[in-house]
Design brief:
Strand order of the largest sheet: 1-2-3-5-4
Radius of gyration: 18 Å
Organism: Planobispora longispora
CATH topology: Aminoglycoside 3'-phosphotransferase, Chain: A, domain 2
InterPro entries: AGP_Transferase (IPR051678), Aminoglycoside_PTrfase (IPR002575), Kinase-like_dom_sf (IPR011009)
Pfam family, one: APH
Protein name: Aminoglycoside phosphotransferase
Strand content: 15-25%
Helix content: 40-55%
Number of domains: 1
Oligomer: single chain
Structural class: alpha+beta
CATH class: Alpha Beta
C-alpha cells in the first residue's frame, strides 16, 4: 500500500525486541520492570534521551534520535576525537546527577556471576583455560569498593548518538542503576581502546585506567554466554573474545 513504512527489526532475542517504523522505535519487552527502569531513568537523566511517544505495555514507542551512533563494536569508528570526548563529558554529567532510587548489583553478586561464567566458558570449551584465567585475574582490579553514581549500565558505542562533534542522545536505559562510574567508561570504550584518551579527556576527572581495563575483561567474560545463547557472535573480529585476547 502507498505510504506504508517498512518495518525494520533492529534487534530481537528471547523476551524482547526492538522494531523501527520510519522515525519511531517500538520496544517490546515481556519484562515490564525493565521498561519501568528505562522510562524513569530517561526522565531523571541530565543528558539528551529519546522522546517517549507513548507506552502501551508491553510496547514502548520512542522517537528516533538525530545523527548516527558513535560507533559499533568490531568496526573502526569514523567519528571524530571531539565526538568521543563529548561522550565522555556526557558520561560525567550523568555520573554527577542525583542517584536513582533503585540499587545496582553488589560486588558479591558480580564476583559470583563472574566465577560462574568463567567456569562455564572453560567447562564447555568455549575459550582456552589460560585465556579465561588471565582475564579473570585482570578483572579482579574492578572488584573493589566504589562510590555509587548514576550509571547508564550499558553505555556501549551503539547507544550513543552524535551529529558531528555533538551528542544528540543516549538510548537503551533499561540497565540504569547505581554503579561504578568506571564501568560506564569501560563499556563505552570496549573494543575502541584507541579512543580511551579522548573519552577520559572529555570526562574531565581523574580515572584509574587499570580499573577500566579490568572492566573490559570482566564485561567480556560476563557477556559471551549471553551473546551465544541469543544468536550473536562474540568471536567476530574486534568483539569480546578479541578483547580478551588483547589482554594477553
Amino acid at each position: 500500500m502507498a505510504g506504508m513504512e517498512d518495518v525494520e527489526v533492529v534487534v530481537a532475542h528471547h523476551g524482547c525486541a526492538t522494531l523501527r517504523v520510519g522515525d519511531v522505535f517500538l520496544k517490546i519487552d515481556a519484562d515490564q520492570t525493565r521498561t519501568d527502569v528505562e522510562v524513569e531513568a530517561m526522565a531523571m537523566a541530565p543528558i539528551p534521551t529519546p522522546e517517549i511517544l507513548w507506552r502501551r505495555p508491553p510496547v514502548l514507542a520512542l522517537a528516533a534520535l538525530p545523527g548516527t551512533a558513535l560507533g559499533r563494536l568490531g568496526e573502526p569508528s569514523t567519528t571524530s576525537p571531539a565526538a568521543w570526548a563529548a561522550a565522555g563529558a556526557a558520561a560525567r554529567m550523568l555520573h554527577d546527577a542525583p542517584l536513582p532510587p533503585w540499587p545496582g548489583r553488589s560486588l558479591d553478586e558480580i564476583a559470583s556471576r563472574l566465577d560462574g561464567e568463567c567456569e562455564w566458558l572453560v567447562t564447555n570449551g568455549v575459550l582456552p583455560a589460560d585465556l579465561v584465567t588471565r582475564n579473570r585475574r585482570i578483572a579482579d582490579a574492578a572488584l573493589r569498593p566504589w562510590t555509587p553514581v548514576f550509571t547508564h549500565g550499558d553505555l556501549q558505542v551503539s547507544h550513543v548518538f552524535v551529529d558531528g562533534d555533538e551528542i544528540t542522545g543516549v538510548i537503551d536505559w533499561s540497565e540504569a542503576a547505581r554503579g561504578d562510574a568506571l564501568y560506564d567508561l569501560a563499556v563505552l570504550t570496549l573494543g575502541h581502546e584507541e579512543h580511551l584518551g579522548d573519552v577520559v579527556a572529555g570526562y574531565g576527572a581523574p580515572v584509574d585506567l587499570d580499573v577500566i581495563r579490568a572492566w573490559w575483561s570482566l564485561r567480556s567474560l560476563l557477556a559471551i554466554r549471553w551473546l551465544i545463547e541469543h544468536g550473536f557472535d562474540p568471536s567476530s573480529p574486534g568483539c569480546e573474545i578479541d578483547v580478551l585476547r588483547s589482554r594477553m
